[in-house]
Amino acid sequence: MSLMKVVSAKLAAEIDQELMGPQVGFTLQQLMELAGFSVAQGIYREFPPNKSSANKNVLIIAGPGNNGGDGLVCARHLKLFGYHPVVYYPKRGKKNEFYKQLVDQLNFFKVPVLPEDIGPDKWLDYAKPESTLCIVDAIFGFSFKPPMREPFESIIDQLYELQNKIPVVSVDVPSGWDVDEGPLSDMSLNPAMLVSLTVPKPASTHLKPSASHYVGGRFIPPEFAKKFKFDTFEYKSTDQVLKL
Amino acid sequence: MSLMKVVSAKLAAEIDQELMGPQVGFTLQQLMELAGFSVAQGIYREFPPNKSSANKNVLIIAGPGNNGGDGLVCARHLKLFGYHPVVYYPKRGKKNEFYKQLVDQLNFFKVPVLPEDIGPDKWLDYAKPESTLCIVDAIFGFSFKPPMREPFESIIDQLYELQNKIPVVSVDVPSGWDVDEGPLSDMSLNPAMLVSLTVPKPASTHLKPSASHYVGGRFIPPEFAKKFKFDTFEYKSTDQVLKL
């Protein structure tokens, strides 16, 4: 039986649950730190900060759940790598005290976090083609189910308009896409780069041919991957991302 | 006023407390993941796994506190990097459920964790010059205060005997050293490599001239370092360690 290259939304949820279950014992904080770091490393590969250029701004748009948390961690590492990240986090995760701590950490690193209610016109001030290297779409991940709620519907519409001027980097799944089926319309976001976490989801097969596709989240032993009928990836040395 | 190159045990404790305090909001799990990863990356730099050789074994000796926890995380990443780590963890941290989870994670990755009561003769079976690339001393860190308790006194005596046959890599502080004063006797451990975490402690100035000294734990903004009167380090690209 050949191994799959992708896992469905349903399997991705099972993998996540098992990784954080009593047997494996990973915590959300650990996995989020490694996932967010891997996205930041992928961005460094694809959009290295050019020391001679002022163009080091990265706007991170964080959603209300774990995909957003990955984005918050990514922003902190980008700052350490020499970028100028700015975070837009309009619906803050209230379920888990840890999300608040991730924001505290960003304050500690002097990463600007825009006011929650800044609104759709104001955040665009932080997405200028002449100074913004890329926009990180950390809005929705593998557990997204329609319908899309505001303010994210407007934000994603605006990202669609921007995507040919500023490259969009999606975390795990392009936001608004069906995790298993891909883009829902011709007006769906189509990112320049995707960092799939753990293993790509079926949606990733719908990326445009010019898009860069990375996998990150290097925390799976081969036996576990086989159990879920996918193969682990041949990461190099101590790398936390691999370009596919 | 010039900035210091080292911080005392007392300042290191204050830095740690502040990083995990209410303002900064880091959690132990995050910092331990990044610290353990940095040690593993340092080992990869200094002792790359040679694909053509069987010599990929690394013995990690973990102490009862946070230094031991860093070692447990390091072991997991070493496994992902292609090494064959084995962990000896004779006094397991009981204060924090998370230490147990770190052991569960090692089981998940099929990293052997020797029985707690294996005794001083048996663990030596896992430290053979012909097959062991290095031994990681993750026994005591910056909060160590004498007197040394068993079984660690015996273990460190045995490490002293072994250190010229198998290189020893110490995490943060060579175990048994006074954090501020350095080695306590001529029979003190003298590691081949030290990975200082966040910022070196005064003991590091007593390393033998042939020793490699790295700094890891890349999670400090420059303003915070200045407040504690040290300078941040010029890490390259996405590196989590820097050779000093």
TrEMBL record, chains A, B:
GO terms for cellular component: mitochondrion. GO terms for molecular function: metal ion binding; NAD(P)HX epimerase activity; nucleotide binding. Its main location: cytoplasm. Residues 12-232 form the YjeF N-terminal domain. Keywords: Cytoplasm, Isomerase, Metal-binding, Mitochondrion, NAD, NADP, Nucleotide-binding, Potassium. Its EC number is 5.1.99.6. Binds 1 potassium ion per subunit. This is NAD(P)H-hydrate epimerase. It comes from Zygotorulaspora mrakii (Zygosaccharomyces mrakii).
